[in-house]
Structures are given as structure tokens and as C-alpha cells.
Amino acid sequence: xxxxxxxxxxxxxxxxxxxxxxxxxxxxxxxxxxxxxxxxxxxxxxxxxxxxxxxxxxxxxxxxxxxxxxxxxxxxxxxxxxxxxxxxxxxxxxxxxxxxxxxxxxxxxxxxxxxxxxxxxxxxxxxxxxxxxxxxxxxxxxxxxxxxxxxxxxxxxxxxxxxxxxxxxxxxxxxxxxxxxxxxxxxxxxxxxxxxxxxxxxxxxxxxxxxxxxxxxxxxxxxxxxxxxxxxxxxxxxxxxxxxxxxxxxxxxxxxxxxxxxxxxxxxxxxxxxxxxxxxxxxxxxxxxxxxxxxxxxxxxxxxxxxxxxxxxxxxxxxxxxxxxxxxxxxxxxxxxxxxxxxxxxxxxxxxxxxxxxxxxxxxxxxxxxxxxxxxxxxxxxxxxxxxxxxxxxxxxxxxxxxxxxxxxxxxxxxxxxxxxxxxxxxxxxxxxxxxxxxxxxxxxxxxxxxxxxxxxxxxxxxxxxxxxxxxxxxxxxxxxxxxxxxxxxxxxxxxxxxxxxxxxxxxxxxxxxxxxxxxxxxxxxxxxxxxxxxxxxxxxxxxxxxxxxxxxxxxxxxxxxxxxxxxxxxxxxxxxxxxxxxxxxxxxxxxxxxxxxxxxxxxxxxxxxxxxxxxxxxxxxxxxxxxxxxxxxxxxxxxxxxxxxxxxxxxxxxxxxxxxxxxxxxxxxxxxxxxxxxxxxxxxxxxxxxxxx
Amino acid sequence: xxxxxxxxxxxxxxxxxxxxxxxxxxxxxxxxxxxxxxxxxxxxxxxxxxxxxxxxxxxxxxxxxxxxxxxxxxxxxxxxxxxxxxxxxxxxxxxxxxxxxxxxxxxxxxxxxxxxxxxxxxxxxxxxxxxxxxxxxxxxxxxxxxxxxxxxxxxxxxxxxx
Amino acid sequence: xxxxxxxxxxxxxxxxxxxxxxxxxxxxxxxxxxxxxxxxxxxxxxxxxxxxxxxxxxxxxxxxxxxxxxxxxxxxxxxxxxxxxxxxxxxxxxxxxxxxxxxxxxxxxxxxxxxxxxxxxxxxxxxxxxxxxxxxxxxxxxxxxxxxxxxxxxxxxxxxxxxxxxxxxxxxxxxxxxxxxxxxxxxxxxxxxxxxxxxxxxxxxxxxxxxxxxxxxxxxxxxxxxxxxxxxxxxxxxxxxxxxxxxxxxxxxxxxxxxxxxxxxxxxxxxxxxxx
Lengths: 694, 162, 276
Ligand SMILES: Cc1cc2nc3c(=O)[nH]c(=O)nc-3n(C[C@H](O)[C@H](O)[C@H](O)COP(=O)(O)OP(=O)(O)OC[C@H]3O[C@@H](n4cnc5c(N)ncnc54)[C@H](O)[C@@H]3O)c2cc1C
Ligand code: FES
Ligand code: FES
Known about the structure:
The complex is a heterotrimer of chains A (694), B (162) and C (276). Among the domains of chain A are: 373-424 and 552-694, Aldehyde oxidase/xanthine dehydrogenase, molybdopterin binding domain (Aldehyde Oxidoreductase, domain 4); 432-539, Aldehyde oxidase/xanthine dehydrogenase, molybdopterin binding domain (Aldehyde Oxidoreductase, domain 4, 2-Layer Sandwich), CATH 3.30.365. In chain A, 31% of the residues lie in helices and 25% in strands. Chain A contains 18 helices and 28 strands. In chain A, strands 3-4-1-11-8-9-10-21 form an 8-stranded mixed sheet, with helices on both faces. A 6-stranded mixed sheet of chain A has the order 6-15-14-13-7-28, with helices on both faces. In chain A, strand 8 and strand 9 (172-177) form a beta hairpin. Chain A starts with 21 loop residues before the first strand and ends with a helix. Chain B is an alpha+beta fold and 162 residues long. Chain B has helices at 22-29, 74-77, 81-92, 102-115, 121-128, 138-161, and strands at 2-7, 10-15, 48-51, 54-57, 70-72. Chain C is built from 10 helices and 12 strands. Helix content of chain C is 31%, strand content 24%. With 276 residues, chain C is α+β, with helices and mostly antiparallel strands. Chain C folds into 2 domains: 5-170, Uridine Diphospho-n-acetylenolpyruvylglucosamine Reductase, domain 3 (2-Layer Sandwich); 176-273, Enolase-like, domain 1 (2-Layer Sandwich). In chain C, the strands form 3 sheets. In chain C, strands 4-5-8-6-7 form a 5-stranded antiparallel sheet. A 4-stranded antiparallel sheet of chain C has the order 9-10-11-12, sandwiched between helices. Chain C has a 3-stranded parallel sheet with strand order 1-3-2, with no helix packed on it. Chain C has helices at residues 12-21, 32-36, 76-80, 90-96, 101-106, 109-113, 122-128, 222-228, 237-255, 260-273, and strands spanning 5-7, 26-28, 48-51, 61-63, 67-71, 132-137, 140-145, 163-170, 176-182, 193-202, 205-214, 218-219. In chain C, a hairpin with a 3-residue loop joins strand 4 and strand 5 (67-71). The chains are: A alpha/beta (694), B alpha+beta (162), C alpha+beta (276). The B-C interface holds B 1, 17-21, 24, 37, 40-43, 45, 48, 54-57, 59-62, 64-65, 67-68, 108, 111-112, 126-127, 129-130 and C 1-6, 8, 28, 31-32, 35-36, 38-45, 49, 51, 53-54, 75, 77, 96, 99-103, 105-106, 186-187. The structure holds flavin-adenine dinucleotide and FE2/S2 (inorganic) cluster (2 copies). The site of one FE2/S2 (inorganic) cluster has 8 residues of chain B, from loops.
């Protein structure tokens, strides 16, 4: 790649090739849990070799990354499909066949699959917080309700399957892979090769819609490719088949959230006792962030004088599970919204009324955080949303239908719901290196501007926005602004690009760097470079250990409404329309923002009616039988931005559909069928069974 | 065994095995960046080719079925005016797809416009199911198809006029 | 990779000879089903394969006043491009629900009917409208209803060393039809199925009645269908309920599946026959 190549045309791994390149396929474990694993060494054709842990250690390399991840399982196996070694050779098809026929001998152990009740050895991370006196509040309260809400496991359906290519470029090892966190890749590879980080260059390939699933896993695959390249002294590419990607890459964590609430007659919370359990599979280096995000989201929007919060990341012997579209918060939003629905049905109020009495307002806070500085625009959002979606009329008429026809025999089974949510750019990452971001802009002799950032995002809308911002500040044409492909090669640490960060952080850095350049322009000789760097004030804004601070600074707010219809004959729910009203500050490229939100909404719908992954299943047919939403049944989508906020600074919006849509969908489903299923997703036959039971 | 077929207008004679998928055989015959075998199941569309004029998934096609056929890949199609119309439509609608699916989507649109020169929204949505992509905004893509159709029809219409 | 022997018969006669010599021979028409089932990079097939889609005699379409006769290798797209009205009313809709346009460009009607591991989408329709198929072997050819592709237990069956060559689709379909596709997986899965109910109603009387549910297994109660003939419509809810109950109990017993969707569909179709 040349320096001129811009990230509008990021390379794809599938098409990258180097002279003498070899391919590697991963040998995977067949056991879910085992000890004394020993890879069998079959006879291989000439030109093929097996790379196994013993050989790697013998060559003085490491099996463990800087963040403690194992590149290959050695003696102990913790999930079915865990990488045990590689088959490397010139023909990728043959490598695949050989990897599939290579097995290992091991002593099988009983896998830990239970997660809702678990042993202490399964706890990867745990946190408890208490405010007020929940026990006393529960004793006194008249209305106490308790329910458990479940969320399924989902695949990310990446644009390009997981993979990495390692090759030498001069004296450095270049790693090509689609990672949201290139610095993590660099440090991981440096640790396993036992070389300085400066010897590794990471070049990001097309990320597509990564949905926070490409935060740490690409680093593992990059290490595998790098080890193979080092041992074979040739460039090596690993590219998962789509089936392998589906069966073995990490997915959205499974969750069970138990909420016990004490409320007064108006539905106002007096006490909440919440237990969040996230099944993270065999391991997840981001377990702590998942738990913190989920904890902050579950009470974030609502105030309550007495709260007990307990959250666990629990290990089981299934593939690693973690983030999808939001790190932990969608589970929490789903559960609390579902619980509010439940309360609404008990006290004959609408869910919107219950939310209104509980919603956090200016001057209030939870857990002793600083009081909220300004009013959250929820009232304006929900008014606009109600008007757009005709919520009140539809809600009332569907309620009437339900009362008249409880078994849904008349045919029209519809529901509408409205959910509020937010995303922040606040960091839950402890280490300062994860909160540092840098942007460099250079005006060259041809008066073309290049933007250089480690911030790797797959969203073309975000990249377009950065260009528009720079072009606006420097009064130049967008055609003369180029974004360099994200390359991570310096010693500076750079944080991960989660869905929430592209707009807020990188865009403001582009703006700052461009302003600095503007000042130097016409004074200094070309080329002129200026740089902007930020280290997010993590502890100042929001301390994830104590949950103190201003959790909502830099937040975008939204309301999402969805209207769904249940086919009374098959029970299949289908979304008819989705409306979103958003306050995400200034929208720089309006059409692109809308287009990328529409795509995100369709992705988020997958979490409601799409394919639920069965992590305990052992049959590969799971791959063939994935459920799909056909384009012909996409809902109508209507998105509006709040007018008055157009002047403020731009804020992130990519996560908003993921945090709000499942909750809204669930509520609409509950209204439609008149039963609370307390889980998502649900298949048609299950919905019919619930209706029948009703 | 050896089979003969025509690839992008050039006769080919190639050795295949019974278990070869057509897409891998084509990849070995030349540089076809449009062929990115991915799902191997008629879902992603990264292997679309025209076989005897019909759009097919070359991953779902056993190589032995190519015997005697005429195959056109994106590389063969890209020189045509039809292809230029589609690229124009995609750019105008700001719906330019990523490197991973661009060629597949162009082939998908080409097939639609060949069959239905003025497609309706339902035709477009139906055709969209040929290429899966998690990041498409269907509205922009539909706009791109209509713009491509307009451009194509104008060109063909003008030519017919002369 | 196991290497299989590939045959390209020059004629139907050749193909029948081949079938006789190799009873295990795998016929590949469009190949979408036999390949779609496999997710690995290399495909594996039985020891002998015959590719048949190039044979012109298996692609012919003819039409009489009573029926349309299509060769087994007619693609689903090919069927859809027949002039409008060439297919009985619900068939174009059913074909359009199969896969997507690129799958239908390759998938054939014969392959759809002859799938060995389950019933695909066209079978329940064609069985309901009494479509006929020509089965050929070296012993000769015979015509039979496509319903014979299901055995008594509701599993797919196909005579050995034979090939399905032509399908006769009656142009007149019963005047009542109700159908629903179940499941939305990208490849037909254990939960995919088609429910079809067709009836001829004349002078407020049921003249003929068919109800088929077909997925991994086929479910049809032929004897019970006969008992409905001659009944007056509209059927009252009192008439309908016992029929639904009977079907429902038999469905659970014969297929081992839960019956929530089946019951709702059966009730709906009977309700619709009655104009309710
Ligand atoms: C992505 C995808 C989606 C699909 N969706 C659907 C769907 O929605 N509905 C649906 O019904 N199907 C679906 N299918 C399955 C399949 O495409 C169709 O059923 C198709 O019609 C099969 O035809 P074919 O010619 O490709 O069959 P092939 O794969 O060639 O053959 C199928 C079977 O029939 C046998 N056979 C074929 N022709 C004959 C003959 N003339 N005589 C005797 N035996 C014969 C073969 O030996 C084989 O066992 C899908 C497939 C894919 C890959
Ligand atoms: S590789 Fe052929 S459709 Fe995906
Ligand atoms: S995969 Fe290319 S735009 Fe979605």
C-alpha cells in the first residue's frame, strides 16, 4: 500500500496477496473442556507443517499476549473450537482439509455450562453497589415485583470474516487485519514475538459494520498469523471461512437480569434490587467493561432512593461471548424497559407514564453522582416521537383490540412501543492508554489535506463526516481531503474505536487539528502538519469503580418507537415501522447519518427476530440454517433529529439503535400478544404457545 | 478430468476434480478480484457470475457443470456501458459499497436491469436478497438502482433513436 | 477430497443405462440442493455423478388445454418467465418464495421435487393439484401423481434406478386455495415447511378438499379429506372445531411436532373456505 491510498478504499483481506505467501488454517478443539491435551502430528504433504504450542515455545516465542490472552490452548481446553494450532501451507483449501482432519488426544472433563447459578470459580468479574437502604424500603413497600429477563446470543455477521495477514515490510512486521483497536493488535503481536512494539506495524483492512465485535479477537488471530510468519519466514494469511467465523468468533453475551422493584401507587420506584448475570463463555478480556456498562445503563435513566446492584461476568465452557453494538448496555436497557412494562400492566398505566415519574431530571442522580447539570431532552424527544408515530392513538386502539380479543383470534395482532435511551462517549476502560486518541492533519504541496488517525471505523458515514469537518474548517473542497488508512506504528498508545467514539472523539480532534493547521497556514511552508491528541478524563467524568461522576456528559439521547405485527397463524412477529428521534448534537452530513442509522436499525432488528446462535449446539448445521430478515420485509424507517440541538457539537449515534430497539421491540410484542415472554428473541411457534397458554 | 468452457469471451480448457466448486476453479484461471468465495451457500453473492447469460452463484455450482458453458465474471462485465451506468447510479446515490461487496452488488443490479429495465421497489428488494451485506441502507441502494436504470434507459433509448 | 466419476449422458437413453449400471448414481440437476447442503470448501459426492441439466429433452415445455408439461430440468426462473396465465394461480407466488432470483436461475423443478432428505416447497402444491410426473427407468416409463413421492410414513421416496423426466401441471387449480410458508432460514431448515389447503367449492358444496403440511415430513389425511366432500359451506364453528381437533391430534401423532402453527393454519383455512 502506498501512503496515497485513502481509507475510502480500505483493502480487504480476501484480496491481499504477497509473493511466496502461505496460508494457515486453525486446528480446533473437539472437546468443550479437557486437560492434558496433546495435538496429534499427522503425515503431511511436502510443503505443509503444523505449528503447535510446543514448537512455538521451543522457538523462544510466547503463547500469551500482553493482555493475558492465550494464542493457542496448550494442555487445557476451555471450549469446543478453541484454537490448538495451525496447519500452514501453500494451498488454502488443502490447509483447511488438513486442519479439519488433525485432532488431539485429551482427557475430557465435564464442561461448566450452567451460568444462571454458578460456582465461585466461574466468576470472571463481580461488582456490587448499594445506595440507600433497599432492605428497609422493600419491607415497607406495598407493591413488590420480581422478574427475570433473558437475552440471547447473536452473531455479528461481519462484512468480511475474521482473519489476519502477517508479512515483513523492510525491517518491520506488518499485520493486516480488520481491528477496531490497532494498538491492541500491535502490543499483542509484539508480546508473543517478544519484540519491541515499534517493530510491528498494523494496517487496518475493511471493517464493515464491526459492531464492537472486533475489539480484541483480531489481535489473537493476528498473533497466530505473526507466529506462523515468523516460524515459516514467509508471509502468512489466515482467513476464516464464513462457517468458521459463524461457529467460532465471539458473539453477544447471553444475559439474565433479575429485577425486584418496590413502587408506590404511581409506579414510582422506592427500591430496586437488581442482579445482572452475563455469560461471557470461556473468557473475555473485556468482562469488566461489560459489567460496568450494564450496571450504569440499568439505572442510568431512572432515579431511585434505594438500590442494590449486583453484577457478574460468568465463565462457561462455550466460545467467548461479549459485545455487540453496545458493550453490555443493551442487555440492561432491555431488562429495565421490560420490567417497566410489567409494572405498567399491573397498575393499569402506560409504560410511558411510569417512565415519566421515574426519569432522572436536572439536579438528581444515582449513587451519589454529581447532580445532573442540565435537563435530559426526553420530554421533547418523546413528544416528537409520539407525534411521528401516532403512538397514543395506536397504543389505545391496540389495547382495545387486546381486551376484546385476548386470544388474538380476530387476526389483527399489533403492538406499538416507545423506548428512550442514550449512548455516551464516557470511558469505562481503566487504563489511560485505552482512552488516548490522536489525529494528525497534513496539508501537502498540492494543497491536498490528509487526515491520519488510528481511529479505525468501518462506517463510511463517519469517515465522510471527518472529511466534511476538516474541509469546513479549512474552507477547502471535500474532494481535496483524504483519510489515510489507519496505520498503527508509533509507540503512542491509542484507544479502541467502539461504536460510540468515532463521531465524538475523532471528529472533535479533526476539528481541533484543522483549526491549528489553519493558524499555521499561509505562514509556514508546505507541507504543514498539526496534531491533536486527547486523553479522556476518565476518572473526572465518570468513575466506573464507584459509579461517581457525570455519567451523561457527552451523551446522545434518543427515543425509538416500533410498530409490529404478529402473524396470527405462524406467530412470527414482523416490524412494520420504526421511528427514531435523536439529539446527537450537530449533524454534519445529514444524509449519511440517516443512511448509516437505517443500516444500524436493520442490524439491531436482528437482535429481535433474527438468528439466535446456539452456543451449546454441536451440529455444524447451525451455520446452514441461520434465520434471515428478507429485504422485502424491511420496515419503513423514519428518523428525525431534534431541531434545536443542531448548533451543539456532534455526538455519537451508532449505538442508539442497538440499545433501544430490542427494548422497544419487546414492549411492542408484549402489547401485541398480551403476555410477557421475558426473553428475546422469540420464535413464532413459541409466541403461539404463549398465546395458547393465555 | 478436463472441461472446456468460455470465460469472458476466451475459450478455456482446464483440469478439475469432482469436488471443486466453480468459484475456486475460476480463481485459479486468472486474476478475478471480484470472486471472493465467502459463505459458499448462495447468500453473500461474492461469487456471482453470469453463466449462459443468467446470474448464478459460482460457489453453489460444481465445476463440472460449467462444461460447455459461457461464463462472464465482473471483470468481463466491467468494460460494458451497462456497468458504467450502475457505477454512476451508485455514486450519485451516495450508496457506493465497500470493496468487499461492490462488484457483487454491481452484478446483482446488472441482472435486475437486464430483466426489468424499469424496476419497481418490490423488484429491487427481491433482487437485494441475492447479496447479503450488513451495512447497506436499502433506501440509498434502491435510489442507486433507479438512477442506474434511468441512465441506462436514456443511453439505450438515444441509441435506438439514431 | 473423494474423487467421483462424472458422467455427461448424451441422451435420456444413455442416462437410463447409466442408472441401471450404477444404482447409487447421484443425479445433479441445478445442484443447488446437493451443494447447498455442504459448507466445506471442497464438495463430496457419491462415487458416481451424472450431470443432466444440459439435456435438451429434459427442458422442453409443452402446453395443452388441460395442462402444462415441463421437463424436469426447467429452472424455477424459467417457469416464472412462461407467459402469464401459463401457471395455475398460486404457483408463481410459491416459486417466488423459493430462495432468491439467483438461486432460481439454477434450481430446477425436478430437483425441488426429488430432494431425498425432506420435502421442498413445490411438492405440497403440485400434490394438491394432482400434478402428474413421468418416471423413467430402463424398464419403461410410467405416469403417477406427484403425491407418490411421499411414503406412508410421510417420508420422501423415489423408485431406484429411475429418473423423473416430466411434470404435468394441471392448468385448472381448485377455486379455493390457502397456503403459508413457515420458517425464515436462509436454507431450508428443520423448521421450514409449507402448509397448503385447496378445495373446489361449487354450489355451496365442497367438491374436493386437500390439506398438506410438508417439511421434513409430509402430513396428509387422505381418508379424512374424503369425509369432507359433499359438506355444505359455510361450515359453522361447530363444524370446524371437530375437524381441527382431529387434524391436530393426528398431526402430533404422525409428525411428532408441536401443533400450534398447524392448528392455527388449519382453522384459518377452514374458516376461509366458509368465508368467515
Ligand atoms: C440459499 C438456498 C435457498 C434455498 N431456498 C429454498 C426454498 O426457499 N424453498 C425450496 O423449496 N428450496 C430451497 N432451496 C433448495 C433448492 O435450491 C431447491 O429445492 C431446488 O429446486 C433444487 O433443485 P436443483 O435442480 O438445484 O436440485 P439438485 O441439487 O440438482 O438435486 C436435488 C435432489 O434431487 C435429485 N434430482 C434432481 N433432479 C432429478 C430428477 N430429474 N430425477 C430424479 N432425481 C433428481 C438429486 O439427485 C438430488 O437428490 C434453497 C437452496 C439454497 C442453496
Ligand atoms: S460465496 Fe457464493 S454466495 Fe457466498
Ligand atoms: S459488505 Fe460492503 S457495503 Fe456492506
